[in-house]
Amino acid sequence: MVRVNTRDLLIGAGLAIAIAGGGAAWFYVTHHDVLPAGIARANGRLELTRLDIAAKYPGRVTDLAFSEGDEVTAGQVLAHEDDAEAQAQLAAARAQILEARETGQRARAERDAQQAAAHLAQLELDHVHVMARQHLVSDMEVQQRQADHDAHDAAVQAADHAVAAADAAAQAVQAQADRAGTVVGDMVIHAPVSGRIEYRIVEKGAVVPGGGRIGSMLDPSDMYLTVFYPAEVAGTLHVGDQARIVLDALHRQVIPATVSFVAPEAQFTPKYVETTTEREKLVYRVKLQVAPETAKQYGTMLKSGMTGDGYVRADPTIRWPDSLFLANAK
Question: What are phi and psi of 274, to 5 degrees?
């Protein structure tokens, strides 16, 4: 009878388990990332549209009402500039408006007076014509009345022009006042869209030039993953095609997306992009857009610069694999 050593049995069993485990691990490593035919993967970075918070006019920042990381809404007041000079210009323009109105009223009163005088001259001219036909006045008298009538008629036309000039001047100073009011309003800096503050560039008391940035913000409603595909993949894509995004930081959670842009020209593969081959020389930039309502569901979890993979289909009729399947999508 062959005697079996218990120690040898345990060692043999351990080796068998190790070999089996190693084989399973090898199979997982070599096959876990294998995709069905027609599904393409590319790694990329999540990006959000970055907007500058800038001052339209030069001035000193008197107040900053935001900090890095704040969530702001469109139109929210973020900063104030010193508007003393703009307020003075607005006050001066309003004073000019009052002056222009007085000038216009005076011009209209003078026109009314000239029109009354012209009407009287017309009556006198009509009367002298009647008397001339009756040979009661001389031709010299008729000519004098005609000259008086013409002079008053010219005065009425001059008064009309004066009223028109006064109205134009009033419109000009009103435009100046409107511009001054706009400048005063623009000294209050608002959030251009709803989003998240990324950086605060200046501090209270800083003097900024016209167009100078005081901060930057990210627009979460415009979020996309930038990826690069070779020509054989990019050539099959169309704007509006379904896509999938899987971010490393979200434990490989699948996020629905759509193809929103396919570059019309090829470029060399960026250094930070990993490809299945060692180096694919020419690729096409593709944007996989996340719908605003989808991005809103994730809140602040989605951040610019997150790395992940983007998946597309060469044919829209190809079924997504189970690992990328979404119940509410085709």
Answer: -90, 140
Q: How far apart are CA 267 and CA 265, in angstroms?
A: 7
Q: What angle do CA 288, 311, 287 make, to 5 degrees?
A: 15
Phi-psi region of 327 (alpha: psi -120 to 50; beta: other; left: phi over 0): alpha
How do residues 74-103 score in pLDDT, each as one tens digit? Answer: 999 999 999 999 999 999 999 999 998 888
Where are the extended beta strands (E) located within 55-159?
Answer: 59-64, 71-72, 77-81
Size (the chain), residues: 330
- Reported in sequence order, the residue ranges of the chain that DSSP labels E, i.e. its strands, are 39-54, 59-64, 71-72, 77-81, 188-190, 195-200, 207-208, 213-229, 242-247, 254-262, 267-268, 282-290, 307-313
- Contact partners, residue 1, CB within 8 Å, separation at least 6: none
- The owner of tokens 């017309």 is 122
How does pLDDT run across 275-299, given as a tens digit for each residue? 555 445 688 999 999 998 888 888 7
Q: What is the pTM of this model?
A: 0.62
User: Are the beta carbons of 39 and 318 closer than 8 angstroms?
Assistant: yes
Within 10 angstroms of residue 189's Cβ, the number of other Cβ atoms is 23
